[in-house]
Design goal:
It is a single chain. The protein has 7 helices and no strands. It is mostly helical.
């Protein structure tokens, strides 16, 4: 049963990542983004699939471009740390997209506080 639930969570999060990549992030309502970001964070933590990590980072990069509230939320949820862990990947493309995501998140004051 738990295996089926994890598969459903994984497939749902992958779908959200792909929607987040292909859709203008400004079209999403602000109240749905926290749940989407949490689902994508779950995918980073629980999937070993490099394609899923890549797609998740691309979606989070788009979301982080929306404004300081979303970036602050990503910091508060710990997404910063999860993305940072992807920098250790052996896959150059995952490293590149993780840097892009962190660069977008770095535009908020909370991230600057963490770096200082």
């Amino acid at each position: 049963m738990a295996e089926i639930q994890d598969r459903i969570k994984t497939e749902s999060a992958v779908a959200l990542a792909r929607i987040g990549i292909t859709t203008n992030p400004n079209l999403f309502r602000q109240d749905v983004l926290p749940g989407m970001c949490q689902a994508l964070q779950w995918l980073i933590k629980n999937s070993g699939n490099e394609l899923y990590h890549f797609e998740t980072c691309m979606a989070l990069t788009n979301f982080a471009s929306m404004g300081p509230e979303i970036r602050d939320m990503m910091i508060d949820y710990g997404i910063w740390h999860d993305i940072r862990n992807l920098l250790a990947s052996d896959n150059d493309r995952i490293q590149t997209v993780a840097v892009e995501t962190l660069a977008n998140i770095c535009l908020c004051p909370k991230s600057v506080e963490r770096l200082m």
